[in-house]
Amino acid sequence: MGNISYQISRILQKMKKDQVEKQDIDKTGVNLIISHIETQPMQQKIIFFAIIALVGISVNYAYSQEIGLATFQETAQVIIDKRITQIVTSSITLQSTSIQEIKIPTELEQRIRENENISAVIITNQDKCVLGVNGESCILINVKRNPEDTNFLKIQNSTLKISEQFIDEINDIFDTKAKLHSTFIQPSDETNTALQTSGVVSGKGTVSAAYTMPMEDTDSMYEKISAILIPKTIRDSGGFYDAAKNLSTDENAKMTFSIIPSGSKSLLQLRVSTTYSEIAPSIDKINPLELLKTNELKRSEYFSTGFYPLNSIVQVAILSSENTNISDVRGNIIPTQIIDNEKIPIDITKKGWVFDPEEGQMIQGKYIFGKETTVSSNELKFSLGGDSMLEEKQEFDESILVVIIITIVAIAAALFYLKGYKK
């Protein structure tokens, strides 16, 4: 039992150290997992899931293996929007707060982060990155609007004074030749919707200095940008990186790289996404990997040196105008307990789904790999609207007392950490 207490103590110490920075990221709306569609309630649930799952140590591994939380994260996501856009969006995101794992020059990252006026730097081949741009790739340097600037000319001059300090170096690093196209005052979160980013990247109060360059195919652009950003060690480790590379060849695929400064670190995100129009209303059998253009998804071997169950996650979100429910789950459903009206996985060494909520007009599912390194297409299939959930039952065994003790400590740790999020 001493080893369990030591692990939880270590996690709590890290939580205390990172709490201020994580609060800053969350409060500004940086959405690490779910994209633009109804981000706020989704974000809170996913954060809750991650926090408590982190300390929900399993009986089998509690005495032999320490749970880790790496700075590098790989996420596969499918959003099925039956309510608003009628579009299915599939994406794979690689992200880190370490410039050793997503490489940008130290001095550039520091200058961007320490410039309090910059909210994000974005490189994308998403069409219409801002109003007036068509058929070109973009570099956006997003700047917080100065309230003292009372007309467009002053706003433009203030924005360009900042962006021009960075654009030449960014062009040099990424071997681009982007030229100034326009200065665009963001009236709302329309750019977020287009780029599938969060409010910190753009939105009301943000001015974008838009630099454009010739449009490039997503697969060649991803190959080039990832070779610059992602160390060979991580590229050679496969995992979601290989899946993203494969997804980039889809005819509708687009890519976005974002630098989002916050506190003492920047969040660095490399994302590939593709969309399917007009199929969302008719989907009732869901095969996430088919929508991600692969039959099998492997975790990165980068995590093979330890136990990092929360650094590779598959997520599915369904938005519907009518009530529906999860059914006919082919793979495992992880046993959970209800804490503060949230479903919390009891054992994160097991692979499987946590659906929360599992019915209604907004449904979320998070799949974790547990001790496993791969998941097949068949394991991730499920349906909507059926009668049978096929939930895995938790068996009582002689170690249940240890589970109870671990759970009590985990709940205490999670509730302590959640104080920083429920404000």
Strand content: 25-35%
What is the N-to-C succession of helices and strands? HHHEEHEEHHEHEHHHEEEHEEEEEEEEH
Structural class: alpha+beta
The strand count comes to 17
Number of helices: 12
Describe the structure.
The chain has 423 residues and is of the alpha+beta class. The chain has a domain at 93-272. It contains twelve helices and 17 strands. Strands 1, 2, 3, 4, 5, 6, 7, 8, 9, 11, 14, 15 and 17 form a 13-stranded mixed beta sheet that branches. Strands 10-16 form a two-stranded antiparallel ribbon. Strand 1 and strand 2 (87-96) form a beta hairpin. Helix 1 (2-27) packs parallel to helix 12 and helix 2 (39-55) packs across helix 12 (400-418).
Compile the SSE list and pairings.
Blueprint: H1 2-27, H2 39-55, H3 59-62, E1 73-81, E2 87-96, H4 106-114, E3 118-124, E4 136-144, H5 152-163, H6 167-174, E5 179-185, H7 190-195, E6 206-214, H8 218-229, H9 232-235, H10 240-247, E7 254-262, E8 265-277, E9 285-286, H11 288-291, E10 296-298, E11 312-327, E12 336-339, E13 342-345, E14 352-355, E15 359-368, E16 374-376, E17 382-384, H12 400-418
Helix pairs in contact: 1-12, 2-12
